[in-house]
Protein: Acyl-CoA desaturase
Amino acid sequence: MSKTNKPPIIWLNVTIFLGTFLLATLGVTWYGIAYGYTAHHWVWLVISFIFCGMSITAGYHRLWSHKTYNAHPVMRYIFAIGGAFALQNSILHWSSDHRVHHKHVDNNDKDPYSAKRGFWYSHIGWMLREYQASRYTDYKNCRDIQKDPVVMWQHKYYVPLALLMNVGLPIGLGLLYGDLLGFMLVIGALRLVLSHHTTFFINSLAHVWGSQPYTTKNTARDNGVLAFLTFGEGYHNFHHIFEHDYRNGIRWWQFDPTKWLIKSCSWFGLTSDLKRVSSYKIEKARLARTLQVAKIKAVSLPDSDRIVAMIEHEFQLLVSKLKEYDDLKKQCIKDAKHNVKQKYEQALLSIQLEQLERHLKLKKQQWRHLVNNPQQALS
Ligand SMILES: [Zn+2]
Ligand SMILES: [Zn+2]
Structure:
């Protein structure tokens, strides 16, 4: 797009982003030097930052955009209010954008925040001009969530809710603790800027910085640092391939507090129907990715065609073993649930499963060795 036919600037957004940024940097620093802050300011900063962040990740993103679980109306109202506090537009608008992002990821003409249009554009630039003006008429890619009264209530009252949370709440806290300007700066401006930019990192940094353990079909990356800043959303490579999984960080050691929140709420009946992709599919994607790397390595070796054929053969064997293990595991769980088998049959099945597990472990070790040393495929 040439400079002359760029769409018009959205002055409201520019004013909000620039104004809050200046207040959060210069204003907060000046006030701190001149008057200082108390522990109350910082505690409320943390609380409000978490409230905004989790409302976006657990609510806007994993609940409404991707429908990875169901939530009790109480949870939905909390997320709707927290989302207005995060000032990232209504649930309906946000989810519509996000669904288009997933559907057309990296397509510069269709993805609203395509990372291929550069860091600045995907981070914030896409919101500074009327790039999407023609798109929002009926939010037709979000017909399903339009049936949720909480979504429509928040969409209708988005502006008063956003004002209440972003102006009313800091004023209220300021009056409570006797420091109006201090709370306006810390909870009004600093919290908003931190919340905005950490979320925006998912569209920008999480598409350029990190690893791609599952797929290279798009630019999304897994990044532990970003996961830490974004309540678990940094495992973006996993998320783009398995968007219907309520988890983003699937390993126990991966930092994904959004997943922990959704899971722990399910123990109290506040969330339900948590969707997970089968471990077979996840493992298969990981293996396919290592196969891709091994093939690239093998190309430069002598007799590369034969090496590639051998690696592919090993890959197929491993995947079929994986499937066998997965099927047997499912069978075990099903039988245990329905208690259909006799005790000795169940014991036999679990011995089989253990054997298969050991075999699979060995196969995986061999596979790892092979993909690191592809020339050994011929030996
Ligand atoms: Zn993305
Ligand atoms: Zn998503």
Notes: The pocket of zinc ion (ligand 2) is lined by residues 61, 65-66, 98, 102, 239, 243 (CB under 6 Å). The beta strands are 70-71, 271-272.
